[in-house]
Amino acid sequence: MDKFRSGMKFAFGDLLDDIGSWLMLGVLLAGLIGVFLSPGLIEAYLGDGILSMLIMLVVATPLYVCATASTPIAAALVMKGLSPGAALVFLLAGPATNMATLTVVSKLLGKKTALIYLISILINSLLFGVLVNFIYDFSGLSIQNWISSGGEESHGVIAYISTLVLLFLIFKGFVSKFLFQFKKTDMVPLS
């Protein structure tokens, strides 16, 4: 029972404090994409093919977004017409190739290893993106058809309560961090 309590405390405390801000950022950006980005724009410039994957590499590589934030962003882009393979490229390359990660790899393992790491991530992201698009094309699957045929879905009371609990726990983490920083700066004597 102690291990269970410890696990729950970590999951809904420390872990949620660490990923909560990223999750909120990802959901916010996904919402902005959903509202302001037209499907025609995505389909015209990013819809399908290797070019869309290369554009996702260019966007994802310098972008400092962790996997928690990039998942809702990728989902919103796919709903607007981005190919599943290009979304996978974004999901694989973004968190693994941001400047913070590359700096750490470079300092710990050397510049040559960091360059090999970067090239490996980029090539493998493209290869897996092409593979995913091939699987979708070969099997006749279409995410956009799933979305359009899904219709309007009503969420029940449990979904609303769960959302409120999650928002409360994330907000509680923000307040705790703020109060800790406030106390820490309050304790420092002024010169």
Provide a short characterization of the protein structure.
This protein has 191 residues and is mainly alpha-helical. The chain is built from 9 helices and no strands.
Detailed description of the structure:
There is one protein chain. With 191 residues, the protein is mainly α. It has two domains: 19-147, no CATH class; 156-191. It is built from nine helices and no strands. The longest helix has 35 residues, at 2-36.
Secondary structure elements and their pairing?
Layout (H helix, E strand, L loop, with lengths): L1 H35 L2 H7 L4 H11 L6 H13 L4 H14 L1 H11 L1 H29 L3 H8 L6 H31 L4
Helix pairs in contact: 1-4, 1-9, 3-5, 3-7, 4-5, 5-7, 6-7
User: What structural class should be given to the helix and strand makeup?
Assistant: mainly alpha
- Overall pLDDT confidence: 80
Task: Output the radius of gyration.
Answer: 20 Å
Q: What is the 3D shape?
A: globular
| Series of H and E elements | HHHHHHHHH
Portion of residues within helices: over 70%
Q: First CA to last CA: what distance?
A: 49 Å
> What's the domain count?
2
User: Would you identify the regions where 5 or more consecutive residues have pLDDT less than 50?
Assistant: none
Largest sheet: number of strands, sense, barrel closure: none
Number of helices: 9
Question: How much of the residues is beta strand, in percent?
Answer: under 5%
Instruction: Count the beta strands.
Output: 0
